[in-house]
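Sequence in, structure out. Go.
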Amino acid sequence: MDEMDQYPHMKGHYLVMDNAPIHTSEDIAKYVKSRGYRFAYLPSYSPELNPIEQFWSVVKSKVKHNKFLEKETLMTRISEASNSLKLSDFKGIVRHSHKCLDKYRNRQAL
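Output:
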């Protein structure tokens, strides 16, 4: 929310969260409201609606693509995979989530 606070027009917008217990506590709800935002929860078991889940899916596939080199670490591989993504990749991830959200709203199978 600190990032969102830098843009006054963001006040009143929704913060979208999954249903993890930490996100659904009354304290979190009060805190989000006190900062001037609203919140919405994603349905349970819906990674296709959550762009960060899609991001990690792409990174995971890039990490697993090749065998590890002798001196390569998991952190190095994750960092390289993350940094290799382009703006168009992120736009595609968000587009995919929007399409799935539209299907969800229209009660279509995801």
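Check: DSSP finds five helices and two strands in the chain. The radius of gyration is 17 Å.
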